[in-house]
TrEMBL record:
Similarity comment: family membership: Belongs to the SLC13A/DASS transporter (TC 2.A.47) family. DIT1 subfamily.
Matches recorded under InterPro entries: CitT-rel, SLC13A/DASS
Keywords noted in UniProt: Membrane, Transmembrane, Transmembrane helix
Keyword set includes Iron-sulfur: no
Membrane-traversing stretches: 7-25, 31-51, 58-75, 81-103, 178-200, 220-240, 273-291, 297-314, 326-350, 362-381, 393-415, 444-467
GO molecular function: transmembrane transporter activity
Protein name (database record): Anion permease
Lineage: Bacteria, Bacillati, Bacillota, Bacilli, Lactobacillales
Subcellular locations according to the entry: Membrane
Gene Ontology cellular component annotations, sorted alphabetically: membrane
NCBIfam families noted in UniProt: dass
Membrane topology, from the record: Multi-pass membrane protein
Keyword Phosphoprotein tagged: no
Length: 473
């Protein structure tokens, strides 16, 4: 007789209790918050706690949350299902499929071996080299998901596998865990350094202009240059110390990589086609804003070509369970987070913060606003949604408290990226890299918490002083 699948029913206790308590507090909720908004808050908090206690895998938790959201009439079905059509989420799924092409053809392994041959003396050096690729691509790639998920993740996965580091074998800590997490933060930092490196950054420019602050591409880059370089240098080293790889030095890596490349022989036709499609996808990601092809469409084009040329089969696509799992749970969380705004909870929260800061010293106001902005990201599954919901309100509060407008506009803009140092659903690259299975959720959250404090200190402290030095405020 087939046994039932294991369900950790104890894991449901805390999220259900907390969710019910918040739900039952509806009669005493703030008057400005609509009932549906408060109910969405209760459901969302319960869901996030369930993602931590893990009564079911996160995909299963999200399905339960989706059912409850619609069943309680908090969000009607036609609006709830919209999350599954989110372009950014499909971009994430496409990244998984492109990664499979790299692995299946062996091209990813070949690229990885060349990286090992060139930078393979130390694991930390490998991390810096991969982040360097991200830095080079960032100014011309307005999708941090495309960079981390579509470009670097396949290389890191193949590189890790070349060292025998795979989650399914329990060997993820050899090298893969460190490289995955280092790239996540490298991608986050480069996204903060360029106005064109993340989808929400141009939105920041537009919203700031509405408040009378004109941010230029050069001004953004110059302001972010010093805190960005400091972060790019220090953060990989901090991760190396806090979450060290088991393989730290590989003195024979160059010869080993050369031997492996020799065994592989010349590039196969499948590898060559994969390489051409990869370069085409990269070009489309970099030029999409000029030719009218967004990152998600570019990824769909790449997958279509992989199928048409026979590099991938439809069966390969169906078997990429990580992509379908991520598509499910991330869609639900994005829907719930978006509903917090549309149903009035987030607007109320922003106004409440505004009124409570009246009369304070502007330096203290700026710090409080950024800290609030940063940690409120635990309620969001999209940086773009968070920026849309809060940026204008918080900038208006800052300016009214006599914070120098350009300083406030830029720091809030930078932290629209850096606040991804929170959860495994914080931004587009997060579910791609977390979904690889190399870094457990507990480590993802705890390491992000420590590094989040680092970003707050460096970007507010050193960043503000640097901007003062170059005359931006």
């Amino acid at each position: 007789m087939k046994k039932l699948e294991h369900v950790n029913y104890r894991g449901f206790i805390l999220p259900v209790v907390v969710g019910l308590i918040l739900w039952l507090m509806t009669p005493i909720k703030p008057a400005a918050v609509p009932v549906a908004g408060w109910h969405m808050f209760a459901l969302f908090v319960g869901t996030i706690i369930a993602c931590i206690t893990r009564p079911l895998p996160i995909g299963g938790v999200s399905i339960v949350a989706f059912a409850l959201t619609v069943l309680t009439k908090t969000v009607p079905m036609d609006k709830a299902i919209v999350g599954f059509g989110n372009a950014s989420i499909w971009m994430i799924a496409m990244a998984f499929f492109i990664a499979r092409g790299f692995i299946k053809t062996g091209l990813g392994r070949r690229i990885a071996l060349n990286f090992v041959k060139t930078f393979g003396k130390r694991t930390l050096g490998l991390a810096y080299s991969l982040i360097g690729v991200d830095l080079i691509l960032a100014p011309a790639t307005p999708s941090n998901t495309a960079r981390a998920g579509g470009v670097l993740y396949p290389i890191i996965k193949s590189l890790s596998q070349s060292f025998g580091s795979e989650p399914k074998n329990g060997t993820q800590r050899k090298i893969g865990s460190f490289l995955i997490f280092a790239e996540y933060h490298g991608d986050m930092i480069t996204a903060a350094m360029f106005m064109t490196a993340m989808a929400a950054n141009p939105l920041v420019q537009t919203l700031a202009k509405g408040s009378g602050v004109d941010i230029t591409w050069g001004g953004w880059f110059l302001a972010a240059l010093v805190p960005g370089i400091i972060s790019l240098i220090v953060v990989p080293w901090l991760i190396y110390k806090m979450y060290p790889p088991e393989i730290k030095e590989t003195p024979n890596a160059k010869q080993w990589a050369e031997d492996q490349l020799s065994e592989m022989g010349p590039m196969s036709m499948a590898e060559k086609i994969m390489a051409v499609i990869f370069v085409l996808a990269l070009i489309l990601w970099m030029t999409g804003s000029f030719i009218g092809i967004d990152a998600t469409l570019a990824a769909f084009i790449a997958l279509a070509l992989l199928l048409l040329t026979g590099v991938l089969s439809w069966q390969d696509v169906l078997q990429e369970s990580g992509a379908w799992n991520t598509l499910t749970w991330f869609s639900v969380l994005v829907m719930m987070a978006g509903s917090l705004t549309s149903l009035g909870f987030i607007p109320w929260l922003s106004k409440a913060i505004s009124s409570s800061l009246h009369g304070m010293n502007w330096v203290l106001v700026l710090i409080i606003l950024i800290v609030f902005y940063f940690y409120s990201h635990y309620l969001f599954a999209s940086s773009t949604a968070h920026v849309t919901a809060m940026y204008s309100a918080l900038l208006a509060v800052a300016i009214s408290a006599n914070v120098p407008p350009m300083l406030a506009a830029l720091l809030l803009g930078f932290f629209g990226n850096l606040m991804a140092s929170t959860t495994h659903y914080a931004s587009g690259p997060a579910p791609v890299l977390f979904g690889s299975g190399y870094v457990p959720q507990s480590k993802w959250w705890s390491l992000n918490f420590v590094l989040g404090i680092f970003y707050l200190v460096v970007w507010i402290g050193i960043g503000s002083l640097w901007m003062k030095l170059i005359g931006m405020w």
